[in-house]
Specification:
The complex is a heterodimer. Chain A is mainly beta. Helices cover 0% and strands 54% of the residues of chain A. In chain A, strands 2, 4, 5, 6, 9, 10 and 11 form a 7-stranded mixed β-sheet that branches. Chain A has a 4-stranded antiparallel β-sheet with strand order 1-3-8-7, with no helix packed on it. In chain B, strand 4 (32-38) and strand 5 form a beta hairpin. Classes of the chains: A mainly beta, B mainly beta.
C-alpha cells in the first residue's frame, strides 16, 4: 500500500530537549516536505526536498532542521524545541504526472 | 510574498445543495493548482487537481482563471460525507502554499 508514515504520532516534551520526527514514503517520490498546521494559520511549509541531499527552506524554517540522506526518508529535527513549536506536523511526498502530494497521518507535538 | 485568500466559511448547507468555493492567489508564478480536503484532525487528502481548461470529477468541478488569479470548486448535490475543510493549494516549484481552508457542513 502506497503511504507516508510518521513517527511518533504524539509527543510531549520539554523546552530544549532535542527531538526527531521521522517520515518515510514508499512511493519512490523525489519530493518531500514538512508542514506545520496551527489554528487560524493553516498549513505552512517548513522545509522541502527535491531529491537526496537537496533541501530548501519553506515559509517557516526557523528552529527546524531536516536531512535527506535517502530517498524514502526525510526526518524533521528540532535541536532545541520551544513552546511556540507546539503544533500539528505533517510530512508529505509528491510525485507523479500532476505532482500531487500525499500526506502522512500527522504528529501532534506539545513542548512544555 | 505569496498570498492566498480563501472564502472564510463556514458554509452550512442542506443535503442536495450546490456550493461553490473560491480561492485567489497573488503570485502568478504558480505551476500547479489543487483542491485538498481535510477532515477534522486528519491529514489533507487530494480532492482534485485543477487544469487550465477546467475539469470535472463526478459531483465536483474545478476551474482556473489565470487572468483573474483564482481557482474555484463547485460541489453539486452535497452529501453529508462532504462535510470537511477544503484547502486550495498552489505549487511554486515544490514550495507549496496552502489557503487557510473553508469549512463546509452539510446538514441533513
Amino acid at each position: 500500500e502506497a503511504q507516508v508514515t510518521q513517527n511518533p504520532r504524539y509527543l510531549i516534551t520539554v523546552t530544549g530537549k532535542k527531538l526527531t520526527v521521522t517520515c518515510s514514503q514508499n512511493m519512490n517520490h523525489e519530493y518531500m516536505s514538512w508542514y506545520r498546521q496551527d489554528p487560524g494559520l493553516g498549513l505552512r511549509q517548513i522545509y522541502y526536498s527535491m531529491n537526496v541531499e537537496v533541501t530548501d527552506k519553506g515559509d517557516v524554517p526557523e528552529g527546524y532542521k531536516v536531512s535527506r540522506k535517502e530517498k524514502r526518508n526525510f526526518p524533521l529535527i528540532l535541536e532545541s524545541p520551544s513552546p511556540n513549536q507546539t503544533s500539528l506536523y505533517f510530512c508529505a511526498s509528491s510525485g507523479g504526472l500532476y505532482n500531487e502530494q500525499f500526506f502522512g497521518p500527522g504528529t501532534r507535538l506539545t513542548v512544555l | 510574498r505569496k498570498e492566498v485568500e480563501q472564502d472564510p466559511g463556514p458554509f452550512n448547507v442542506p443535503e442536495g445543495a450546490t456550493v461553490a468555493f473560491n480561492c485567489t492567489y497573488s503570485n502568478s508564478a504558480s505551476q500547479s493548482f489543487f483542491w485538498y480536503r481535510q477532515d477534522c484532525r486528519k491529514e489533507p487528502k487530494l480532492l482534485m487537481s485543477v487544469y487550465s481548461s477546467g475539469n470535472e470529477d463526478g459531483r465536483f468541478t474545478a476551474q482556473l482563471n489565470r487572468a483573474s488569479q483564482y481557482i474555484s470548486l463547485l460541489i453539486r448535490d452535497s452529501k453529508l460525507s462532504d462535510s470537511a475543510t477544503y484547502l486550495c493549494v498552489f505549487d511554486y516549484g515544490q514550495n507549496f502554499v496552502f489557503g487557510p481552508g473553508t469549512r463546509l457542513s452539510v446538514l441533513p
